[in-house]
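input
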Amino acid sequence: MLRVSLLAIALHLAVVSGKCMQGSYARPAVGTSFRGLHARFRGLKGRMPVRRTGDSTAYNSVKDGRERLVAFGRRSAKIAGRKGAQDAIKTKLYTKIGKMVADAVKSGGSDPESNPKLATIMKQAQTANVPKDIIKRNIDKGESGKANYEEFVYEAYGAGGVGFVIECMTDNPTIAQRDVKQALKKGLGKWAEPGSVSFNFARRGVIRLPSEGTTEDEVFEPALDAGAEDVVSEEEFIKVLTEVSDFHSVQTALVDAGLPVIGDQCGLEMVPVTKVEVSDEDAEVNEDILSRLLDIDDVDAVYSTMSLE
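output
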């Protein structure tokens, strides 16, 4: 009787093990964290695959006795990476506007009424919701005469034929260029000669509205009436593209029309003329390059030709 029970248990375990090896475990329900997934498989050795559904695959890998989550849903990774990048870009935008304020104050004084350059920047700062303490700090810096900023644009190649344009506003161009080159080297990117990448981009005004709660039809007519070039739907945003000279007037028109313009997600950007589709592996390399570049204090913006679809 005992032998029969042990045999039944062994057969049951063999069936379960066979299902695991075939990747038939269903992925966790929505809301299950990856930390929870990691804990659920704690103690299992080797690789435990999770069923593929669409473009999503997750599994644990054990190496040298340490468990780590080595891969997860590509879609989730892109969304998480994109949100992190957006937060970094917002911080960079605030920093860049602060530098512009300091530079304008140094060259023309702190009164916007007598300094048209500063007046334009202050309007941009208001639209982007730049915190008042950042503005005040940089006005003080400009008045002290310590602001000596210059603008530089660098170009680079990533993985899979992707190009990068890197914008800097710095008071020490030697250090800025050194830091950019080091970041590229560590991220497996490559420094490019001026013009070899930037010809793939066009300077445009970009106005973003949330895709949730807003439809492209609601935006299209008022945007085109105000002089916009195009309206594009993306996963998280509805993006309105304008000529540089029309940016502020189109943005103002959309705000006046009661549309939920996201002020700190708008500005003049280098928009890729053509985008490059890359493999998941190359996308991860390029995302790492982007992250490393945005970690540099002197880097204000980074643009790439990589498709995020």
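quick obs: Confidence is low (pLDDT under 50) at residues 1-77.
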